[in-house]
């Protein structure tokens, strides 16, 4: 009669042995796949580089190697992110001729959401006129990320007539996916910067307008200065703060008086006044020193710290103001200054 | 006589694009994948010029420039830096350290080639 304990041990050992063999096999397979992908990657990188350098002497062919399509797409994606100018346009043209763009256009009609999303993301990297109609249809996709990727791709086509449908998707999606909408606006800003300023000047979704103000400021779009100034009169405090910040980032010294008025307006929220203080520091106008020195005495911590930091950016006169504030009778003023001077 | 150029970038795609362009221009190219390797190759291989990415693992581009400028043998080595588009801080920081030329990303390899040629001719004293 078999000893049950011995039988159990044998079974257990066999199971462990099989598990080890399975794990080793999986890891070996993964390592082989990684090596193959690395080799393919190198092959495609050289092919793309030769294609661009030799200017038409060597066509760019779609990969025929097993498992090559995904690697090729990744190489092209990385190349397009780095390239600008004629080389970028030539690479997109080559992808159209090789059928890569066509395959992605077909995938936009897939019933599988992840396939549609991947195709839309790819077309956002290599925007192609061939995809225009399919991308426009996909602006109604049930998946928000696909819609936004299609909007990004359409923005990259640099066609003025596409600005309106792109912004319509941005407006409809901004509450659900502000990050995704920011990417769309950043793409649009590269090719149609004035469109962002125009839209900010219109009434519409407060969330979109706030994002537009931020993007205009971050990208320092001088063509947006005018509308940022108009927006300073808005009742939307968040919008005003972002517009003030944007004017500071653009850095036009002519905006200093407006920002100074905002800083001194005690009816405004401390948050807005803090943004004005920050921007005055960025612009570097010494006429703001007195107002900033007063703002150091504000009880709102954020406003006072912003005023202190702005003074620190205003050269010798600003530093002198901070040194005077170190002797303030108010402990919180001394601590704000100490934090900035440390 | 071909010049030897060191291309340092953690992206193999960028290295390949830049190397292909420079080789087509008649240069010899050596590649580095990170800041440490870039520094080592700059000291051992004595390139005539370095194309250097700002953002790299192990040592970033600024630190590489700093150490090259501190070393007597590489103090005057011409450097073209690849920077993030719109990054005023990158440009100003590099100017302080003595970078010779900039190329913001995304870039055109043809334009990079022209900047490399201009830097080489300027630093070799040719008109």
Describe the overall structure.
The complex is a heterodimer of chains A (342) and B (127). By secondary structure, chain A is an all-alpha fold. Chain A is built from 19 helices and no strands. In chain A, helix 1 packs across helix 2, helix 13 (237-250) packs parallel to helix 15 (270-283) and helix 16 (289-295) runs antiparallel to helix 17. Chain B has 127 residues and is α/β, with parallel strands linked by helices. The model of chain B has no long low-confidence stretch (mean pLDDT 87). Chains A and B meet through helix 1, helix 2 and helix 3 of A and helix 1 and helix 5 of B.
Order of helices and strands of chain B: EHEHEHEHEH
* Number of helical regions of chain B: 5
Q: Tell me the strand percentage band of chain B.
A: 15-25%
Element pattern of chain A in H and E: HHHHHHHHHHHHHHHHHHH
Question: End-to-end distance of chain A, in Å?
Answer: 83 Å
**What fraction of residues of chain A sit in β-strands?**
under 5%
Average pLDDT taken over every residue of chain A: 89
Approximately how much helix is present in the residues of chain B? 40-55%
Oligomeric form of this entry? heterodimer
Principal-axes geometry of chain A comes out as: extended
In short:
The complex is a heterodimer of chains A (342) and B (127). Chain A is mostly helical.
Topology summary:
The complex is a heterodimer of chains A (342) and B (127).
Chain A: H1 4-54, H2 68-82, H3 86-98, H4 100-107, H5 113-125, H6 132-137, H7 144-155, H8 163-173, H9 178-191, H10 193-201, H11 206-218, H12 225-231, H13 237-250, H14 256-264, H15 270-283, H16 289-295, H17 301-312, H18 315-325, H19 331-341
Helix pairs in contact in A: 1-2, 4-5, 5-7, 7-8, 7-9, 8-9, 9-10, 9-11, 10-11, 10-12, 11-13, 12-13, 13-15, 14-15, 15-17, 16-17, 17-18, 17-19
Chain B: E1 4-8, H1 12-24, E2 28-32, H2 35-45, E3 49-53, H3 61-70, E4 79-84, H4 88-97, E5 101-105, H5 109-123
Helix pairs in contact in B: 1-5, 2-3
């Amino acid at each position: 009669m078999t000893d049950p304990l011995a039988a159990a041990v044998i079974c257990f050992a066999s199971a462990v042995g099989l598990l080890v063999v399975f794990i080793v096999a999986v890891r070996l397979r993964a390592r082989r796949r990684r090596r193959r992908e690395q080799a393919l990657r190198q092959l495609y990188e050289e092919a793309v580089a030769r294609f661009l350098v030799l200017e038409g002497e060597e066509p760019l062919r779609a990969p025929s190697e097993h498992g090559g399509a995904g690697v090729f797409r990744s190489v092209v994606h990385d190349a397009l992110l780095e390239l600008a100018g004629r080389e970028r346009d030539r690479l997109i043209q080559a992808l159209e001729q090789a059928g890569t763009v066509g395959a992605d256009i077909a995938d936009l009609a897939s019933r599988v959401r992840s396939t549609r999303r991947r195709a839309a993301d790819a077309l956002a990297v290599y925007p192609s006129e061939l995809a225009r109609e399919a991308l426009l249809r996909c602006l109604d996709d049930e998946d928000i990320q696909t819609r936004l990727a299609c909007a990004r791709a359409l923005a990259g086509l640099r066609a003025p007539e596409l600005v309106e449908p792109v912004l319509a998707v941005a407006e409809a999606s901004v509450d659900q996916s502000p990050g995704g909408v920011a990417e769309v606006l950043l793409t649009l800003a590269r090719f149609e910067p004035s469109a962002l300023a125009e839209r900010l000047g219109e009434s519409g979704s407060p969330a979109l307008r706030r994002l537009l103000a931020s993007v205009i400021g971050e990208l320092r779009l001088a063509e947006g200065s005018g509308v940022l100034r108009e927006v300073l009169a808005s009742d939307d405090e968040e919008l005003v703060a972002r517009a003030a910040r944007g004017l500071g980032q653009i850095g036009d010294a002519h905006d200093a008086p407006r920002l100074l008025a905002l800083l001194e307006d005690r009816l405004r929220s401390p948050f807005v006044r803090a943004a004005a203080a920050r921007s005055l520091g960025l612009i570097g106008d010494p006429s703001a020193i007195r107002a900033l020195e007063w703002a150091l005495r504000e009880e709102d911590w954020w406003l006072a710290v912003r005023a202190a930091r702005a003074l620190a950016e205003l050269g010798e006169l600003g530093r002198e103001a901070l040194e005077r504030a170190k002797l303030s009778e108010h402990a919180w003023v001394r601590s704000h200054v100490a934090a900035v001077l440390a | 006589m071909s010049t030897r150029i060191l291309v340092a970038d953690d992206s193999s795609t960028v290295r390949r694009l830049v190397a292909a362009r420079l080789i087509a221009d008649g240069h010899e190219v050596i590649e580095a994948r990170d800041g440490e390797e870039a520094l080592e190759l700059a000291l051992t291989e004595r390139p005539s010029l370095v194309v250097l990415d700002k953002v790299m693992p192990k040592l970033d581009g600024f630190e590489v420039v700093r150490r090259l400028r501190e070393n007597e043998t590489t103090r005057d080595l011409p450097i073209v830096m690849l920077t993030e588009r719109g990054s005023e801080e990158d440009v100003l920081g590099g100017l302080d350290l003595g970078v010779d030329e900039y190329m913001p990303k995304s870039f055109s390899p043809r334009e990079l080639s022209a900047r490399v040629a201009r830097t080489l001719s300027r630093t070799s004293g040719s008109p």
